[in-house]
Design brief:
The protein is of the alpha/beta class. The protein has helices spanning 2-10, 29-42, 70-76, 80-91, 132-135, 148-159, 163-181, 183-186, and strands at residues 17-23, 47-51, 95-96, 114-115, 121-125, 140-145, 189-192, 200-204. The protein has a single domain (2-204), classed as P-loop containing nucleotide triphosphate hydrolases (Rossmann fold, 3-Layer(aba) Sandwich), CATH 3.40.50.
Length: 211
């Protein structure tokens, strides 16, 4: 299934491509992005990897906005201007910063630029990737579908901690996203990722070959 997706993406022919992997918390976006990147490399294309988690606003500025409620997290957590100006737009011209601010250390790495060859594919995972601010930047969009209750259970297994963060912040913010942006309608591919071992491909569109 991953190979099918890799082939559908690279069928566009030569030229840089930007691919987004979106879905609820703990849907498996990061692992899926890694596996997809490897499959694209096996087809002979260089791949760069990035995560939207590395483009959040710094914690030191959290007194300026609400980032802890579900509504606030959805509206304010990510810096979409930097996603575009550091990652997505410069990639199209041959180089980009793959990380703005490390979410754990809060160190700013935006001055570290990585070259992107003419046939490079950028695979970016992250929640809210198909928001209106970013949607036009993607050449291919993949949505990983999991039930909300499974997202919460997996989030607890992965992160531990406070259940309310998952239910009152992440789940609420994702429900706002689904209602406002309808990301499944924007997806070129939809994968039921309920079972990590046996994901099911529900939708697959090929990219039109570039002239």
């Amino acid at each position: 299934m991953i190979s099918q997706l890799a082939q559908a993406i690279t069928a566009a022919g030569p030229g840089r491509l930007r691919v987004a992997v979106d879905g609820r918390t703990a849907a498996g976006k990061t692992s899926f992005g890694h596996e997809l990147a490897l499959a694209i490399v096996e087809l002979g294309r260089p791949v760069l990897r990035a995560s939207l988690d590395d483009f959040k606003r710094p914690w030191r500025e959290r007194h300026l906005y609400d980032r802890e409620s579900g509504e606030g997290y959805y509206r304010n957590a990510f810096d979409y201007d930097r996603v575009k100006s550091l990652l997505l737009e410069p990639f199209a011209h041959g180089e980009c910063a793959l990380c703005a601010i490390d979410p754990r250390t809060q160190v700013d790495h935006s001055d570290l630029v990585t070259p992107a060859g003419r046939d490079a594919v950028l695979v970016v995972d992250g929640v809210f990737a198909f928001r209106a601010e970013l949607n036009a930047c993607w050449d291919y969009r993949i949505w990983l579908e999991v039930r909300p209750e499974l997202s919460v259970a997996r989030g607890l297994d992965r992160d531990g901690g406070d259940l309310s963060v998952l239910t009152d912040r992440y789940l609420v913010s994702e429900n706002i996203y689904l209602a406002e942006e309808e990301p499944l309608l924007r997806a070129d591919a939809v994968v039921d990722n309920t079972d990590f071992v046996a994901p099911v491909l529900l939708r697959l569109r090929a990219i039109t070959a570039q002239a």
